[in-house]
Design a protein that fits this description.
It contains 5 helices and 14 strands. By secondary structure, the protein is an alpha+beta fold. The strands form 4 sheets. Strands 1, 2, 3, 4 and 5 form a 5-stranded antiparallel beta sheet that branches. Strand 2 and strand 3 form a beta hairpin. It is elongated, with a radius of gyration of 23 Å. It comes from Buttiauxella gaviniae. Keywords: Signal.
């Protein structure tokens, strides 16, 4: 997807035990200031009063990111303004004018943050961030394969090396040793967890639609004639939408495989970007 939105996570604080009514404000500026003060002061009660008792249903399940909280506080202090259109307003902060994904809406009772309307925007930003991270990881894989080739005169057929060997892109090192070409993130400790919402699999052949035509990258047990990678969302529509492919030329292709992504990806055995695949434009 050409336009990918950056997501800056905000503080996740535990809800107080007792439910309370969501606060209404005379102006969106007052609502924004109350929200910022609650974040700055880490005031659990005030945060729940501003966002409402059900706000945690709509925010991502990730744990609080202290750095993200610090960035929001810093940006708020640099500058903040309200973008108002009719009965809806948004808070923008910092030099980059980053927009909080939680809209403020006006009713007869006043202005308040609408967490339900924020749900789609939060999901969109989460997917966008995951897809951007997946693309960055793909480029890291390409660079790692090039480094590995310089060491082994072949490309790696797996991400993590066998114990005591260097037959994959990652292997543990002792202090003072040069790092392996790639970190261990592509193969998470917990099966199914993925990396930034994506799974990754190395492809060892390419199809007729690939530059150079159909061929197997492996000969005599060595993968020296190229390499490829496919990346797909852990949960379609929740952690990502696009499926990505790349080969040793470093051009990333994308395609929306739809709701059946998890069933379709295992059938993809070759790097074969036909006309249904689009070249990724960053």
């Amino acid at each position: 997807m050409k336009n990918r939105m950056k997501l800056c996570a905000l503080v996740m604080l535990m809800l107080p035990a007792l439910a309370q009514a969501q606060q209404q404000f005379t102006t969106p500026e007052q609502a924004a200031t109350s929200f910022a003060n609650a974040v700055i002061n880490q005031d659990k009660t005030a945060l729940t009063e501003v966002l409402g008792d059900n706000w945690q249903q709509y925010l991502p399940d990730d744990k609080a990111d202290p750095e993200a909280v610090a960035r929001f506080i810093r940006d708020w202090k640099v500058s903040h303004n309200i973008e108002e259109k009719g009965d809806t307003a948004h808070l923008n902060v910092g030099q980059e004018n980053w927009q909080l994904p939680i809209p403020m809406v006006k009713t007869q009772a006043g202005w308040h943050f609408d967490m339900q309307r924020a749900a789609d925007e939060i999901l969109t930003r989460t997917i966008g961030l995951n897809e951007l991270s997946a693309i960055q990881a793909i480029h890291a894989f390409v660079a790692a394969q090039q480094d590995y080739y310089q060491l082994a005169k072949q490309y790696a057929q797996k991400f993590v090396s066998s114990e005591g060997k260097k037959d994959g892109l990652y292997w543990p090192v002792s202090p003072g040793e040069a790092p392996s070409p790639l970190g261990p993130g592509f193969s998470p400790v917990q099966p199914g967890m993925g990396y930034h919402g994506y799974h990754f699999r190395i492809l060892t052949a390419q199809g007729a639609e690939a530059p150079g035509g159909e061929k197997n990258y492996i000969a005599d047990g060595k993968m020296a004639d190229g390499y490829a990678l496919i990346a797909w969302p852990v949960e379609y529509g929740q952690t990502g939408i696009a499926t990505f492919m790349v080969n040793n030329q470093g051009i990333v292709y994308q395609k929306d495989l739809g709701e059946q992504t998890a069933e379709k990806v295992p059938e993809i055995k070759q790097f074969n970007p036909d006309k249904s695949w689009q070249e990724e434009q960053q």
